[in-house]
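subagent[fold] <- orchestrator: predict structure for attached chain, return tokens only, no commentary.
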Amino acid sequence: MNALHTWLSQQHHGLHTFREFQQRLYEACKDEPDQQGLCRLLNSVVDNYVDTFDEAPLPVAVADHAYQRLLDLVAGIDFTASAEQRLAMINRVAASDLLH
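subagent[fold] -> orchestrator:
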């Protein structure tokens, strides 16, 4: 997941970045099949955000906030963590909302 975080940290905060992140997340699922649940949860968090602003104005402050929340969320993901730590990550991702 560090590669996704590195890529994300170098991107703009626009919706295109979030859509591209979803594609890269899909590829990460293929590379890490044991982490599909976490990847799908993270994808659903991003999908909710993208759907909210698809074809709608996206205020810069909202985009900045969502981008930073996603960066923070991805930074805390470690596929090599213990089962207990991975469960905590899954719960944190499931409870996440990029808008709040």
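orchestrator: received. Logging for downstream: The mean pLDDT is 91. The helical segments are 2-9, 15-31, 36-53, 60-75, 83-94.
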